[in-house]
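Subject: for your reference before the review

Hello V.,

The reviewers asked for a structural picture of the protein, and I figured it would be easier to keep everything in one thread rather than splitting it across files. Below is the amino acid sequence we used in the manuscript, unchanged from the supplementary table.
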Amino acid sequence: MKRKPKDLAINITLPSIDGTIFNLDETKGKRYLLSFFRFASCPFCNLRLNELVTRFGELDKGFTIVAIFDSTIGNLQRHAKKHHAPFYILADETNKYYKEYGVERSLIGMLKGMFGRMPILLKGMFIKGYIPLISKGNWLTMPVDILVDENGVIQTAKYGKDEGDHLPFDQIKSFSSNK
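And here is what came back from the structure prediction:
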C-alpha cells in the first residue's frame, strides 16, 4: 500500500553495505529521506546516489538518508561501496519493504525513463561508467522518495512515474533544515 503524508514510517530491518544490520530505530529523533531505488547497477540510481553523496554536506547536520535497493547484499556492495556514502545503503533482496511501502513496477515507466531521459542515461553509462552489465533486481521497479520527520511521520511521499523521477534535491535540502 502506498504511504502518504501523516502516515507513520514502517520499521525497517535490512543488511547494510557496511556489513551491519540496519534498523530504522537508528533514525529516531532525526529527519531523513527514505529512498527506494531499482537494482544496484541501474545507471539512473547510481547517478542519483552520486548526487546524494556529493551534495550530502549541504543537508542539515542532523539529517540522514536511508537508501534501499532491490538487490542482494553482495551485488549491492559491488556497485554501491565505491560511492563511499556517509549514509545508510541497504539491500532488500526479498522486496519485503518495497511491498510494505507500495513501491510499484511499471514497464511503461521504465520505457518512459529510458527514452525520455536518454541524455541522463547516456551520462550515467558512458561518462560515469554505470553500465548495468549485472542486474540482480527488477528492471521495472519505480523509485520512491519519502521525507520523514523527527517523529517518524511521513511528510512527503513521491512515487516516481519513471526510473529517473525523484524529489528535487533542493526540496530535500529545504526539508532537512525545516525545524
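For the response letter, the relevant points are probably these. The radius of gyration is 15 Å. The chain has six helices and seven strands.

Happy to draft the paragraph if you're swamped.

O.
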